[in-house]
Amino acid sequence: MFTSKSREPREYQNRGLDALAEPPEVGHELFVGLSALRDTLSSRHHTRDFAFAHARYLRSRVLALGLIFALLSPLWIVVDTLVLPVELLRYTLLGRVMLMLGLVGVLALAYLSRERIRRIRFSAGMLLALPAAFYLLVLVILPQEQLVNLVGYGFIPFLLVAALSVFPFTLLESLGAGLAMLGLLAFAQLTDGSWLSGQGVESLWLLATLLVVSLAANHFQLSLLLRLYRQATHDPLTGLFNRGALEVHLSKVQTWQRATEGQGSFGNVPCSLLMLDLDHFKRINDSYGHSAGDRVLCQFADLLVRQTRRHDCVARYGGEEFVIILVGSGEARAMEVAERIRYAVEKSEFTDHDGKIIAVTTSIGVTRLLQDEPPQQALKRADEALYRAKREGRNQVMGANDPLIGE
Ligand SMILES: Nc1nc2c(ncn2[C@@H]2O[C@H](COP(=O)(O)OP(=O)(O)OP(=O)(O)O)[C@@H](O)[C@H]2O)c(=O)[nH]1
């Protein structure tokens, strides 16, 4: 089986392609428990598509918790008024007003950042950093002898570490925030003189324990999110994108086309669609069994991923039908790639479970993806071309009669 990888055209590198998903790994297993540690430790291994789903989820948490913090903060003014001497009130009041303004800013930022991953992460970080900074400021500004009058401030590090468990943070993110809270508590103890006292050590121990519980909650929350995401968007047999995820991805590619070239100038950023169907697949099932058929589908999927580039997208459209989006490839180039794939399939040694060779061929329909058309329309054109390839004898590539193509 040949495995050549074509190089990306230079002009399409570094032009926002990272905003598109990477093709999923073939045969990637759904995982549970400890094996998910790699994915919950940091976001390094997350695909761009999951990063968007993750950010959307994070955003909803930021909005919910930000609202709770913003409401609780002014309520605590009542407690301050009851317990603090008047000369201290102006400090804490000023701090609370600044905290509330900050929280409103975080809420606004999260609300306006629907698809902006970095901004959403930043707003989540600020949501935790603002109350911590408020507490730190109170500790620094108030005279030491007045610190005993503070009621309900000492629990801020505990509240924030507990809040970590509400967010689907990665373990490293939570660990960083948790260590910062432990540092804050240590500073508070050094300031009020309880450092290394029995009560001080107990508080530190409690906060560290709470952090471990939050980290466990983060791990399970994030791994569950990943699992649900994969189940919703990936075909369990081949590990490729499923039909729903493909359609979402098609729209994203079109958005990228528009953003790259500007509205109305379609034709300048060519992208193409390949629709592939295994020939006489029913016969394979009938002759070798359904499970050998499944094996062929996986081998076929594997070949498609190896024949395409990282930014292209390979999806299982249904049954023995697959779709490839070639990003940055016009019709002529797409026909070449399709022919190369057809040839590779013909020459490849597909095998059943006993290593018996199964002859497999594929028919392919090719069309251009226009940036302003409904994705379904392009899929329909590719399907019609595929149908003609089947009708003309199978094991061949057929181009669609594309409208308004100007390469
Ligand atoms: N093993 C296996 N078979 C599948 C799967 N999904 C669909 N099929 C089979 O794929 C076959 C498709 O058959 P047809 O639609 O008649 O197409 P074909 O035999 O490939 O013939 P042409 O497409 O006309 O070349 C059916 O027998 C389905 O049962 C699957 O996930 N695994």
From TrEMBL:
Q: Top-level EC class, please?
A: transferase
Under which EC number(s) is this enzyme classified?
2.7.7.65
Q: Which transformation does this protein catalyse, written as a reaction?
A: 2 GTP = 3',3'-c-di-GMP + 2 diphosphate
Q: Does the keyword Membrane apply?
A: yes
The UniProt entry, under InterPro entries, shows: Diguanylate_Cyclase, GGDEF_dom, Nucleotide_cyclase, Rev_trsase/Diguanyl_cyclase
Q: Where is the GGDEF domain?
A: 269-402
Q: Which organism is it from?
A: Billgrantia aerodenitrificans
Looking at the keywords, is Transmembrane helix present? yes
Enumerate the UniProt keywords alphabetically.
Membrane, Transmembrane, Transmembrane helix
What's this protein's name?
Answer: diguanylate cyclase
The record's listing under Pfam families reads: GGDEF
Residues spanning the membrane = 62-79, 91-112, 124-144, 150-172, 179-198, 204-226
